[in-house]
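Progress report, Aim 2. The chain analyzed during this reporting quarter is listed below.
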Amino acid sequence: MASELSSSHASVTGVRVGELIDGRPVGRFHYLLLALAGAVMFLDGFDTQSISFAAPAIAREWGLPVSSLGPIFSAAIVGLMVGYLCLAPLAHRSGQRRAVIVCTAMFGILTLLCAFAESPLQLIALRFLTGAGLGAAIPSLVGIVSEFTPARRRSSFVMFIYCWYALGFVAAGVVSGFVIPLWGWRAMFIVGGTVPLVLLMVLLRYFPESPRYLLLRGAGDRANATLRRLDPALPSNAIVLTDATDNSHPAGEGKASMILDFVRGRWLLNTLLLWLAFGANLAAFYAIQSWLPTIVGSLGESARVVIACTVLTTVGGIAAAMFIGPAMDRTSPFRTLGTVYLVGAGFVALLGWALGGGSTVALLVAAFLTGTCVTGGQMSVIALATVLYPTDMRSTGVGWALGIGRLGGIAAPLIIGAALSAGIAPREVFFAMAIVLVVAGFCVLALERRVQAVRQP
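Predicted structure tokens for the chain:
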């Protein structure tokens, strides 16, 4: 891992970043990083899901028909796509730490402003801008966590921080049950905007910068100081070296050239298959998260059942992540995720059956099982992207996969709103969604065959 370089004064150690990180056991630095990244992801999830629980109250206050909620649901998702595609790649120049801090401040302030919206148009515009901030933060969080994680634990760590994103969804449901009846829907956005601004103070003090980014910017001393937080035994005069693959996209290179690498040569089909899997998974994910509360409420179920049903789709994903992440690390990540999607198609169909006349217990069980594969699959496909792409392509690759995949997330709530308005039964809608997950499963399995073919001598 290290080589001794002669010096006229003292022996100086040369250390490769990747070898140092992979050789270190999980310790306090990792736990702090996971806590900070998890906190941002938690608030991101809370903000993203709050609109689903606030929407019925918004519709009542402003006299809106249910079918008009689609644009309000989709505004933040469109913003997320813009953040992923346009803002996230800028972290390659400005640094992932700065991107996380700026975007956390951005979505905190804009969420607060949502509490003062006076019309659907204002709320749609603010949700769009909030989504852009949320979308730009996530790829940098995933990129930094995966960079500091030993390769043998990468899928598990990325899945872990995404569990906090899912827990933010759960918290939105629980908090909305108390806050909205007492203080109204605007209070949800006050809570969702204030907490990120408080967290910002902690991020400024403790959140690390990517050592590879620092080295490519010529800030070797700062990279050394960052790595000594990971390994206190690292000499202060150690020469920290980039990995061989880190120089393919030097700092300052145009992002257009870097992004083209994802859609040419050997990466073209791999990237397209990954994007299709992301889009299919996100279509099912956002369709369920956006419309399930409204659909279940329209069946005459109580507010508690509505919240429980929606929350269980997230709890199921968190429970599944405890098994999916380690399975991806120990066996084939592609085969594991492909199986998750195919099993999930059956669970989504089961949820459609429960919505068509099953008992309340059957509805809750089906919601939980659906979450294990739809929400769990969404966490897993992020981890899959970090395995597929090398370090210098990772945060941009994750951002673009999430951004392109958001096309499915944008379209699905709108299509379901139109289908329900046209009189199509919820059962039929969910049966169609099951087919979408089958497509995602076959894409991931096809990706495995391509990756294996490239690795064979």
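Residues 28-62 form the longest helix (35 residues). Residues 12-449 form a domain with the Growth Hormone; Chain: A; fold (CATH 1.20.1250.20). These observations will guide the mutagenesis work planned for the next reporting period.
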